[in-house]
Task: inverse folding
C-alpha cells in the first residue's frame, strides 16, 4: 500500500455509496457517485445506477453485492476521478479486502474507506482518540495497523478510515480531513454520496 501518486496531482475526488430497498420478494440497490473538484470543493458530477440484487447478504462479503452496481455507475461518469472514497472499509476488514480495496483493482485508482461505524474484527484493538479535531489512534491486530479512528471535530463521534489501495494511511487521513467541513464529521465526498442514495432510492421505490 505504498503511495504511488503525488497528492497534488489528484484533482477530482469521487465519493461512493449505495442504498437498498425491497419490492415484494425482490431486493434492489442504487449506487451513487459524487465527484468533487478538489480545487473548488464544488460538485462536478453526479451519477447513479440501480438494478436488482441477486447476491445474498453475507457479513464481510458485501463487495460482491455492491461492486457490480458501482462499476456500472462508474461507466456513466464523464469526468475521470483521480481518487475514490467509499462509504465503507478498505484494509480494515477480516481479509483486508473491504469494498474500497476490492474496487481498486477494477478502477485502477487509489481508494479510501471511510466508515461511520466500527467494523469489529476479532483481535483488533484501538483506544478512543483525544477529544480534539484531527486526533486519531491506530486500529491494530497482531502488530499490524488495519486503519485509524479519526476525530474530525471536537465533541463529535469519530469515524473509521482505512487505505483501499495505492495510498498510504497518512495520506488517507490527510485527504479525509481535507474534505471535512464544519457541517459534518464526514468528508463531503461520501456525505454527498450518502445524501444522493436516499434521494435516488426514494425516486425508484414503488
Result:
Amino acid at each position: 500500500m505504498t503511495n504511488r501518486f503525488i497528492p497534488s496531482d489528484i484533482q477530482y475526488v469521487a465519493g461512493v455509496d449505495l442504498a437498498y430497498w425491497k419490492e415484494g420478494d425482490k431486493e434492489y440497490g442504487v449506487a451513487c457517485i459524487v465527484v468533487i473538484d478538489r480545487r473548488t470543493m464544488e460538485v462536478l458530477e453526479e451519477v447513479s445506477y440501480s438494478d436488482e440484487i441477486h447476491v445474498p447478504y453475507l457479513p464481510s462479503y458485501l463487495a460482491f453485492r455492491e461492486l457490480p452496481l458501482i462499476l456500472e455507475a462508474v461507466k456513466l461518469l464523464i469526468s475521470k476521478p483521480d481518487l475514490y472514497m467509499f462509504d465503507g472499509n478498505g484494509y480494515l476488514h477480516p481479509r483486508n479486502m473491504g469494498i474500497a480495496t476490492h474496487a481498486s483493482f477494477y478502477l485502477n485508482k487509489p481508494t479510501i474507506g471511510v466508515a461511520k461505524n466500527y467494523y469489529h474484527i476479532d483481535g483488533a484493538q484501538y483506544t478512543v482518540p483525544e477529544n480534539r479535531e484531527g486526533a486519531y489512534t491506530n486500529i491494530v491486530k497482531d502488530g499490524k495497523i488495519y486503519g485509524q479512528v479519526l476525530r474530525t471535530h471536537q465533541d463529535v463521534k469519530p469515524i473509521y478510515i482505512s487505505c483501499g489501495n495505492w495510498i498510504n494511511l497518512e495520506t488517507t487521513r490527510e485527504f479525509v480531513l481535507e474534505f471535512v467541513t464544519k457541517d459534518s464529521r464526514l468528508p463531503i465526498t461520501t456525505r454527498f454520496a450518502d445524501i444522493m442514495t436516499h434521494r435516488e432510492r426514494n425516486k425508484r421505490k414503488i
Notes: Confidence is low (pLDDT under 50) at residues 1-5. The longest strand covers residues 12-23. The two ends are 43 Å apart (CA to CA).
